[in-house]
Design brief:
heterodimer, A: mainly beta, 10 domains, 5-stranded mixed beta sheet, globular, B: 278 residues, 6-stranded mixed beta sheet, 5-stranded antiparallel beta sheet, 41% helix, elongated
């Protein structure tokens, strides 16, 4: 028996026999399930290796590949492995603190706090270095000060902004030395060299009688924006102003920029005034190097602004640009979000991650209605979360969760109010792009796009005049069906009828029973390839992430960071441990239209929309369109969406050497069509290929005869180059063929699994199919070369009489599985290999006696599940164990006819059991749940939740507000402990709202509250008494106390310990004085003694 | 009429004149001819002497410079090595021989922070980078420094000086704006009765490497915590540095340049990588 194929559930198992069927089927379902859950299951020997053979830390590999000298933990992701926990590596003597360092890699001091926030000495402060300042740790300040030969002056109490103001506020002036020599300095510096200090005076002041004279030379001064005159001694004077050359009054005292020429203007490119302003995009620069003619001196205010698309941008501005319309799932195929920045007159290109894994969000700061600062940033696009919500929520709850989720939106299909066909799903605002050249990625793309494949069933009933009347979903045959389904299809990713950023439309969908997209509709899609002026990606509320990751408006490295951008980058980390973000529970239909050729009847009308992966136009005539915009360098994704044979050269070398990255037609030399040969690997043990020629073959039984009806078969072809292959029952044009062997992906191997009905059944219903079937196949490569001749695969099916009862091929849920604890009934489905009517009973009785009917609405040839024809019903599940007996009968169309006795019903019941768990999922405990103290302004906290009961697949979410966005926690370990590590919390009262769900649909909610208390107080002694040779002390918090008999300034290391709890004892000598000092767990200790006491 | 004084030579000339002999000697210069000859002969002797002097002297080796000041010599010699090593360390992200790199064109970028998995933040693989750089700088220049002192000794020996020297105590300190070279070696240079002693050969080499390393620490810390470093904003606050970043094969290649000196520190980070395609 072969394995299940892929997540789409296509059946590759070809042998299902009566005896041992259930065992085989169970194995089959298990294998299908294995594939579906494949991303969360691991092979038996994989795990986390602390250091692999190439020297990389913490890699998830096979145990055999992990060197014996390294640590290995099997079945554990490196994120959870104990030896792969990053911490803080620091050296407080030099004030250096490195985050996310493995303990094994740290040669100095190491703390498990991976952010270093709680490590003493890690906070930066203002380091005053004479005339300048620096924002560094205290240890680094000591280094800096020592190197300059100044006293260490470090202050953590002032803000970054206040720190920056210090140099300009320092008293500076002329320092006159003996002999009339003079320099500009601070009073402190002047005093140290024995000079006479004149605050606010220049060295050229006449009253100072120095040797320094006025000059017309200029200079740029470090840390200052402006151009300054220098006197004959080389001292900095006032700001360059050509009108002040030789004007003595301008050379007497220091004049501030505010009082200098043209203050408030940038003075960029001014020959007369050097009052530059960096924040107005000008700064002092060499006029000689820039070949600028300045009136005096050699420096000028260089213009640091930029111009982009005719729009001016200031130095430091960053902004977004796009390839077309964005948001509302409108992003076109191949498009990318672009971020640009103006860096001292040069435009830097910083594109967001390709395949739209990042989006560009722009925030404009305005003053008086004018934009004064633009800040663009590339943020992670958590599109997977949108799909994940569909799996965990439904109805109004889904809508609410989707709206509050970042970058998600609801997309629905509702052709006509009142029609039963319709649905509403949470989809990404910015759908992801796909890399179709990678096999694994291409299969994922197929699965994602398949979510958009749907069938609208239009039920009909016969009227009195024998004509058919539509009962429901009549509007599915309208153009609106195709349009809405296509919109939904496009919202999933690069799927469906869509355009690329070059404006090329490609159909990539199949519609049967409704019109194609109209020309005007297609034109509206093409217009999406034109960017909309003023449209930016939505700046959403990342505050939840911000708070939890320590960015809450605090000053970060000296810069007010109210921007929500930073923490958004950590969002994707959730999905590394949440592989089931994509879980296609609502499996789309995988039908084959070839049935339409065979059976035509007055039954339900099926309107089918097939959502396919978007493939670019064949060939490579548009490849060059990628190469002409230096501001939008080409990339693999952009190139490959222009043509099926487009290839990128110098892939990956993007922004630095854009001229070397080019997109070319890689198939220009290929003029041959694909060559087709049989694919033998998919053939099962009950069939074989016969009469194989270069033009085709026949699929027969092992004896060379026809195949058995209702037995799934698989057959296929292989092409000698990647190709897309279509098939049809008649010879027709490639683009008109109704079947797709390749799921619209260029592949080497193409296969099809089908379940052929008994021709006699169709004949009973008026069909004229004799059982012979031919598939005519054409294949086309990426250059558009088609196989010149049809490749024909023939087969025939044995015709009845049908003497076999239906085979129940499976159920959903599986038998013996668990159902919701809370629900008293469960939706169940039964699959049969042939069109049947099924019944159920609570006792094992003949089919005819069973009182409960399943609803079986499939029609002959139209099985709505890859597992077979579907019958469904709601079964009562009130008990802990619920036993049902199911039997089915075929050929229901014979009821009331003379051949009614030909109906075959199951003689043996299918035993079907649905169980409930012993108890509903519940939360056992959560941590933290008690208050605790810290000595820093923030602390890294692990949130842990333990669940039990319910089903096997628990997932927990947390929120910091009662109605806030639920954030998924990491997958639980084997003990069902869910964790969210490294939450950066600051001192305050916290409440976390926890919601846990299981796969059965049950959920439980709870909350945990705790207060984080900032403790920067040293322990206090609240009581002391003497008791016959012992002195007792009680402190207000657990602390270590030590004493000395010398004085308060004793050496802690050499002192005598009194214990480290709340009560402390000294074995005392009467009359002796004891000096006591106490220190808490955070190192808070008084500068002197906590207490001095004389023993009685 | 002025009566000319009759010199002895003139008497001779007159006599010859009267005798009808050649008059060459008795031209107006005839009287000075002998003096000229003497002068010519003296000149020839001088020229020949000079020529002999140069030919007989040892050839001057212009490649051998005069070691006037041992400290200047050592400083110059060691500075070359320090600067060469500094160049290598800057280009190799803090390692003389980087172990884990990513090639980009004809360069290799050394990983300072790396995470093999997708989506997860990186581990800082080079903590306390300045200490590490100091150690490598010291190790890479140790031999050359010793050679510098050996050269010094050889030079003095060749000039007839005798040198005695003690052990070398060598260390480097990377500080803001410079590299402090701490060299202590007791050297006594003597010739005859006179001698001079030298001990301290400390000096500093201007270098922005400390500041570049500090900025790289900020970058690595932010990348490992937040998966991003806002370098545009950083340059706005610190315009003396230029920071560029290249996104390449799910890694980020950083180039931090000190604008004034044009020296730049290059390294790579792989953090929060997105998988290819989907």
């Amino acid at each position: 028996m072969e394995e299940g194929k892929n997540k789409s559930g296509e059946i590759k198992v070809t042998e299902i026999i009566g005896n041992g069927f259930l065992e085989q089927f169970s194995l089959w379902i298990f294998l299908i399930g294995f594939v579906i859950l494949g991303s969360s299951l691991v092979s038996s020997a994989e795990g986390c290796c602390s250091l692999d053979s190439s020297g990389v830390d913490c890699t998830y590999i096979d145990s055999a590949e992990c060197p014996s000298s390294s640590s290995f933990q099997d079945f554990v992701s490196c994120d959870d492995a104990a030896f792969c926990q990053g911490g803080c590596c620091y050296d407080d003597s030099i004030g250096s603190y490195d985050v996310s360092v493995l303990e094994a890699n740290c040669a100095t001091q190491w703390s498990p706090d991976s952010t270093c926030d709680s490590v003493p000495g890690s906070e930066p402060g203002c380091c005053i270095l004479g005339d300048s300042v620096n924002w560094v740790t205290e240890g680094a300040c000591a280094i800096n000060s020592d190197s300059l030969g100044v006293e260490t002056d470090w202050d953590s109490s002032i803000s970054y902004a206040e720190c920056q103001e210090i140099p300009s506020s320092q008293d500076r002036g002329a320092c006159v030395l003996e002999g009339g020599f003079c320099s500009i300095s601070t009073q402190e510096t002047c005093s140290s060299i024995g000079g006479d200090f004149s605050s606010g005076y220049l060295c050229t002041a006449l009253s100072l009688d120095t040797v320094c004279l006025m000059n017309d030379q200029t200079e740029c001064v470090s840390d200052l924006d402006q151009v300054y005159f220098i006197d004959s001694c080389g001292n900095q004077a006032n700001i360059y102003d050509s009108s002040k050359v030789g004007v003595q009054s301008y050379w007497e005292t220091m004049i501030s920029p505010e009082q200098s020429c043209n203050f408030g203007d940038s003075n960029a490119n001014s020959a007369e005034c050097g009052n530059c302003d960096y924040f107005k995009s000008s700064s002092c620069s060499s006029a000689i190097e820039d070949s600028f003619n300045v009136d005096y001196g050699t420096n000028y205010c260089k213009d640091l602004s930029c111009e982009f698309d005719g729009e001016p941008f200031n130095n430091g501005d960053s902004w977004c640009r796009y390839d077309g319309a964005i948001g509302s799932s409108d992003d076109v195929v191949g498009s990318r979000h672009w971020r640009y920045s103006c860096n001292q007159g040069v435009i830097d290109i910083d594109p967001c991650n390709d395949y739209r894994q990042e989006v560009c969000v722009q925030k404009n700061t305005k003053e008086n209605g004018e934009i004064v600062f633009r800040e663009g940033s590339c943020l992670a696009n958590p599109w997977q979360n949108c799909f994940d919500l569909n799996n965990n929520f439904a109805g109004a709850e889904l809508v609410e969760e989707c709206k509050s989720a970042i970058s998600c939106r609801m997309q629905g299909v509702s052709i006509n109010p009142g029609d039963s066909f319709g649905f509403n799903r949470c989809v990404p605002q910015y759908p992801s792009g796909f890399d179709l050249k990678t096999e694994e990625s291409a299969e994922e793309a197929v699965n994602i796009c398949n979510q958009g494949t749907a069938r609208c069933v239009i039920p009909r009933k016969r009227k009195w005049d024998t004509s058919c009347k539509i009962k429901d979903n009549a509007h599915c045959e309208d153009a609106a069906f195709t349009e809405q389904m296509n919109d939904f299809c496009m919202s999933l990713g690069d799927c469906g009828g869509a355009v690329n950023y070059n404006g090329d439309f490609k159909k990539n969908y199949a519609i049967n029973g409704a019109p194609d997209l109209s020309a005007s509709w297609i034109q509206s899609l093409i217009s999406l390839a034109t960017p909309i002026e003023g449209q930016y990606a939505i700046l959403e509320d990342y505050s939840v992430y911000l708070e939890l990751f320590g960015i809450n408006g605090e000053i970060l490295r000296g810069r007010e960071l109210n921007s929500p951008f930073a923490a958004a980058f950590i969002i994707p980390a959730y999905y590394s441990d949440n592989p089931d973000w994509y879980n296609v529970l609502d499996r789309p239909l995988t039908f084959d239209n070839w049935y339409d050729w065979v059976f035509g009847s007055c039954s339900s009308i099926n309107v089918d929309y097939s959502c396919n992966v978007w493939q670019p136009p064949v060939g490579g005539e548009n490849c060059d369109a990628c190469n002409h915009d230096p501001l939008k360098p080409c990339s693999k994704y952009r190139c490959e969406t222009l043509g099926a044979s487009c290839e990128i050269l110098n892939e990956g070398e993007e922004t630095d050497h854009p001229e070397e990255i080019i997109c070319i037609n890689g198939g220009a030399q290929d003029s041959n069509p694909p060559i087709i040969t049989p694919l033998y690997e998919v053939v099962s043990s009950t069939e074989t290929y016969s009469s194989v020629t270069s033009n085709g073959y026949s699929v027969t039984s092992l004896s060379g005869g026809c195949l058995e009806a209702y037995v799934p078969i698989t057959f296929g072809i292989t092409s000698d180059e990647p190709a897309i292959c279509h098939y049809d029952s008649e010879q027709s044009l490639f683009e008109n063929m109704s079947g797709d062997l390749s799921q619209n992906i260029y592949r080497w191997n193409h296969s099809l699994s089908i379940n052929l009905p008994d021709p006699s059944h169709g004949q009973s219903l008026g069909a004229s199919w004799t059982g012979d079937l031919d598939f005519f196949i054409l294949c086309q490569d990426s250059n558009g070369h088609e196989t010149p001749n049809f490749y024909k695969i023939s087969m025939c099916v044995n015709q009845g009489p049908d003497t076999s009862a239906p085979i129940i091929t499976g159920t959903s849920p599986e038998s013996d599985s668990f159902v919701s604890f809370d629900m008293d009934s469960t939706d169940a489905q039964v699959y049969t290999n042939e069109l049947s009517q099924c019944k159920w009973s609570l006792i094992d009785e003949p089919y005819s006696s069973m009182a409960n009917d399943f609803s079986c609405i499939d029609s002959l040839g139209f099985q709505s599940s890859p597992f077979g024809y579907v019958c469904s019903d709601i079964l009562p599940t009130e008990n802990e164990t619920n036993q049902f007996y199911i039997r089915c009968a075929d050929q229901q169309w014979l009821i009331g006819t003379s051949n009614e006795s030909d109906i075959n019903a199951n003689e043996v019941s299918y035993s079907y059991v649905l169980k409930k768990p012993d108890k509903k999922i519940e939360i056992d405990w959560m941590t933290p749940d008690i208050n605790f103290e810290i000595a820093s302004e923030s602390v890294s906290v692990d949130l842990n939740v333990k669940t039990s009961g319910g089903g096997d697949g628990h997932r927990c979410y947390y929120s910091i507000t009662e109605d806030g966005m639920n954030i998924p926690m990491f997958l639980p370990d084997e003990n069902n402990v869910h964790s969210q590590p490294a939450l950066n919390l600051f001192p305050q009262q916290w409440t976390f709202y926890i919601t846990c769900v299981d796969e059965l649909g049950d959920s439980v909610e709870d909350q945990t509250s705790f207060e984080i208390i900032y403790d920067d107080n040293f322990p206090r002694i609240i009581r002391v008494w003497d008791d016959f040779g012992e002195i007792f002390l009680i402190t207000d918090e657990p602390s270590e106390c030590r004493y000395s008999i010398d004085s308060c300034s004793f050496n802690w290391e050499n002192a005598t310990s009194m214990g480290d709890e709340l009560i402390h004892v000294i074995d005392s000598v009467p009359g002796r004085e004891y000096f006591v000092k106490c220190e808490d767990e955070f190192g808070n200790t008084p500068s002197g003694c906590s207490l001095s006491v004389v023993a009685l | 009429m002025v009566k000319k004084e009759i010199t002895p030579l003139r008497k001779i000339c007159l006599k010859k004149e009267n005798s009808g002999r050649t008059k060459a000697r008795c031209t107006p210069l005839a009287n000075a001819r002998g003096q000229v000859a003497i002068f010519v002969m003296v000149g020839i002797v001088i020229v020949v002497s000079i020529l002999l002097f140069f030919f007989l002297q040892k050839k001057i080796d212009i490649s051998t410079f005069e070691v006037e000041n041992p400290q200047s010599f050592i400083r110059s010699c060691v500075t070359d090595s320090i600067e060469d090593s500094e160049t290598i360390l800057l280009a190799n992200g803090g390692d003389i021989v980087p172990q884990h790199t990513i090639p980009y064109y004809d360069e290799k970028y050394n990983y300072l922070c790396y995470q093999a998995d997708y989506y997860l933040q990186c581990y800082n693989t080079h903590p306390q980078l300045e200490k590490n750089v100091e150690a490598q700088l010291l190790q890479n220049t140790q031999e050359h420094v010793e050679n510098c002192f050996n050269l010094l000794e050889e030079e003095y020996n060749s000039r007839g000086f005798s040198i005695s020297s003690g052990d070398l105590d060598y260390s480097v300190d990377i500080l803001p704006g410079s590299i402090d070279v701490l060299l202590f070696k007791n050297i006594v240079i003597s010739r005859g009765d006179s001698s001079e002693e030298y001990r301290n050969f400390d000096f500093e080499v201007l270098s922005p490497i400390y500041d570049l390393i500090e900025i790289s620490r900020l970058i690595v810390n932010d990348e490992s915590q937040f998966c991003n470093f806002e370098y545009t904003g950083y340059m706005l606050l610190y315009p003396q540095y230029s920071i560029s970043r290249i996104d390449f094969e799910r890694s980020k290649l950083y180039n931090v340049e000190h604008r004034d000196s044009l020296k730049s520190f290059k390294f790579a980070v792989r953090s929060c990588a997105f998988p290819p395609g989907i």
